[in-house]
Amino acid sequence: MEYEDLRIIDTPSLVRDHAISKLRNAISSGLYPPGARLVERELCEALGVSRTSVREALRQLQSENLVEVGRRRSINVAVITAQDAADIYMIREMLETQAIRRFVALSDDAERKALAAVHKRLVKALSKNDMAQLSAIASEFYERVLIGAKSRVIYEVARPLLARVNYLRIRSMAEPGRLDGGLKEWDAMMEAVQAGDADRAAEAMAVHLRNARAAIVARLEADEKTAIPAKRKAAS
Amino acid sequence: MEYEDLRIIDTPSLVRDHAISKLRNAISSGLYPPGARLVERELCEALGVSRTSVREALRQLQSENLVEVGRRRSINVAVITAQDAADIYMIREMLETQAIRRFVALSDDAERKALAAVHKRLVKALSKNDMAQLSAIASEFYERVLIGAKSRVIYEVARPLLARVNYLRIRSMAEPGRLDGGLKEWDAMMEAVQAGDADRAAEAMAVHLRNARAAIVARLEADEKTAIPAKRKAAS
DNA sequence: GCCTCTAGTTTGTATGACAATATTAGATGT
DNA sequence: ACATCTAATATTGTCATACAAACTAGAGGC
Predict the structure, then answer these.
(1) Residue B81 and residue B97 in contact, taking contact as beta carbons nearer than 8 Å
(2) Which of B56, B157, B161 is nearest residue A55 as measured by Cβ atoms?
(3) pTM (predicted TM-score)
(4) Is A147 on the interface with B (CB under 8 A)?
(5) pLDDT band at A233 (very low <50, low <70, confident <90, very high)
(6) What's the pLDDT score for residue A224?
(7) pLDDT tens sequence across B128-167
(8) Which residue of B lies nearest to A159 if distances are taken between CA atoms?
(9) Which residues of chain B have pLDDT under 50?
(10) Is residue A133's pLDDT more than 90?
């Protein structure tokens, strides 16, 4: 996930942003699993930055709902329940069908080409079965759709939702059959976009998200049934 | 807006939260108008807290999109364009029709009573033409709907949108005829909720938000046409 | 009037300090 | 050995400073 570095508008690399990015990655990748406690001092050492910066980064992640405060004021990686995931995907369906409609209507040629390129990378990565890589590329796909939709508000609202399911997607794509299904869905979406057919693109996105939702919710419900751990520790 | 204080789960009032709340109010009320630059040192003095706390508060407001970073890292009160407002209301329509459906299905008796009470206050305040007061109560109405919908995710996504239009609502309700229209719409919503008719409630919410959207967008477009100020200063 | 250089602002970041809680480890009693 | 209470240790929230880098504005020179 290096889109941050592609931005045109510069912001000579703030330490804070770097920290946020690192932490987001650590959470997405599962290095800090859901429920893990994040201790400021440890993060300082791990990231090599001051407490000031770590704390500001945590505040940011907090309002993105990637971490949550425990009752003792501890900061823990957010636990996403099956219910949460279901709602997130419901909302994503609302937002991203709208987004892809606008993408079809408003994107310029470069943006469409870039999206097609990401799609191509997606297809290639699919054959390698590298879930983490795949999830990262998928994120980029959705993000490009959001950007091409040219609505600041849609982007701001939908983007944090993407970050929250990043970690889940990695595991849900491991569901048998989900990969091939996902591939077909992405193909359909891409084709509709290139044909300039907003209705069909939106419908393809909706189908895709509904299927993804089903896979993720199923996985989470299964997990919740088996293990209800009282406490969780951070990865060493 | 004192819901914060009603929470059961205590959090012995953090200085940071206090600062956030104060700043949010200052922005909603227009004390710091859109575009105004927020200087850390001044906020420290105004709020009587350290820079550490101010900065953490600003980070939070930043991810709520109530403030935005200017080109050279200055923090400014977010400017909401007509386009932004239109999108915000579109998204609110998606989210809050869903929310009111769930409210009808899931709220308990106390929550319905509380909503009715807010509605009553709304009606009373309407006759007094106190826009700021009215806007605050309206916010509480929407917020209660979101809470009663019992979806953490819907709440987390929709709530920040409410904060963003708080300031606008004050002025849009001054549009001639908007008040009476709003009253009828709220009545319809409330009636449907009490009748337990989710479809009708959702439709009433949709109509209400579409009308509110039209009023606010019209107002913003008019403003944008007349005044394109190059720079804006904070309220003295 | 216009340009340049200097001095003051403002932000980003780091450090150190300290109170108030939490948590853990130990000491103690049975 | 076990439960319990207590003292040592950790952790978070907050403040005060410090300083470099980027920026702004004003003084002064042309």
Answers:
(1) no
(2) B56
(3) 0.89
(4) no
(5) very low
(6) 81
(7) 877 888 888 999 999 999 999 999 999 999 999 999 998 8
(8) B157
(9) 1-9, 229-236
(10) no
Rounded Cα–Cα distance for residues A107 and B136 (Å): 38
Tokens of B136: 């605050």
Does the beta-carbon distance from B56 to A60 stay under 8 Å?
no
Question: Could you give the residue ranges of the DSSP H alpha helices within chain A?
Answer: 15-28, 40-47, 51-63, 82-106, 109-128, 131-148, 152-172, 178-195, 198-226
Domains of chain B: 3-79 (1.10.10.10), 82-225 (1.20.120.530)
Q: How far is the CA of B56 from the C1' of C20 (A)?
A: 20
Residue B189 sits at the chain A interface (C-beta within 8 Å): no
| CB neighbourhood size of A96 (10 A) | 25
What single letter denotes the amino acid at residue A223? D
Centre a 10 Å sphere on the Cβ of residue B41 and count the other Cβ atoms it contains.
9
Task: Please indicate whether, in this complex, the C-beta atoms of A83 and B52 are within 8 angstroms of each other.
Answer: no
Q: Which residue has the tokens 């009032």?
A: B13
C-alpha distance from B160 to closest chain A C-alpha (Å): 9
